[in-house]
Amino acid sequence: MKKIYPNAAAALDGLLKDGMFIAAGGFGLCGIPELLLDAIRDAGTKDLTFASNNAGVDDFGIGILLQTKQVKKMISSYVGENAEFMRQYLSGELELEFNPQGTLAERMRAGGAGIPGFFTKTGVGTVIADGKDHRDFNGETYIMEEGIFADLAIVKAWKADETGNLVFRKTARNFNAPAATCGKVCIAEVEEIVPTGSLDPDAIHLPGIYVNRIIQGDHEKRIEQRTTRSA
User: Phi then psi for 12, rounded to 5 degrees?
Assistant: First the structure.
C-alpha cells in the first residue's frame, strides 16, 4: 500500500467531514502537525472535536481553527497560552472537557490498545471526578476514564520510512505517539522520508502499522517562551 502523499490536502482527501473527532499530537508549540491543521482550516470542515493537550497559540496550531470557529469542543489539559481559546470557553462558545495530562495521554493510549476504560486515582475528589464511576481498590478510591477512539489522528514526526515507521525528535515525541494509535486513520507529517530499511529498528518510536498516510514538508521552528539571560 502506498502511504506517501504529495501534500496535506491530498492526504486528507476523502477523510474530512463536519462533526468529526480528531486526535492531534503536540505539546505547546512542539511537535504540532501544522501542515495538516492548515489544510483542515482551508477545507472549511466545521463542528470539530479535538483531543489535544492544548490548542497552540492564537495564530498557530489548533488556534487557527479556533479563529475560524471550526472547533466545537476541545478535550484538553491546558488553555493558558491561547487567548482565543480562553475567550471562547469563558463566553460559552466552546465546549471544553478538561483532562489531567497523564490521563489524557493514557486515554489515547488505551483507545489505541482497544481498551474502552480504565481506573485512575488522578482527579478523585475534584470536579474531574464528577459523574464518573468510582471504585475502591485496596482501600483507595479510583475513577473510571474512557479510552479515546477518534475518527482521525494527525501527528508530527521527525523521520518516517516509506512504510510509515516513525521517529520523533526529543520532546516532540510528547502526545504524538499515543495520539497516532487512537485514530481510525492516522496521517503523519514528517521532516524527512527515508527508504524502507534505513531506520534502526531499535530507534523506531511508532510502528508503521499505525500510520496510513505520510506527507513531507517544511516546518516552522517556533519558540513558545523565549527566555534569555542579561549580557
Answer: -90, -10
The secondary structure of residue 29, as a DSSP letter, is T
Using CA atoms, how far apart are residues 130 and 7, in angstroms rounded to an integer? 43
Number of other residues whose CB lies within 10 A of the CB of residue 157: 28
- pLDDT tens profile 85-127: 889 999 999 999 999 999 999 999 999 999 999 999 999 999 9
Nearest to residue 1, comparing CAs of 218, 185, 225? 185
- What amino acid occupies position 166? L
3 state DSSP class of 195: coil
Question: C-alpha grid cell for residue 179?
Answer: 495520539
pTM of the model: 0.94
Q: How far is CA 15 from CA 26, 98, 156, 165, in A?
A: 21, 27, 18, 21
CB within 8 Å of 41: residues ≥ 6 apart: 64, 65, 68, 70
Whether the CB-CB separation of 179 and 193 falls below 8 Å is answered with no
**Can you read off the three cell numbers belonging to residue 57?**
497559540
pLDDT tens digit sequence for 57-71: 888 999 999 999 999
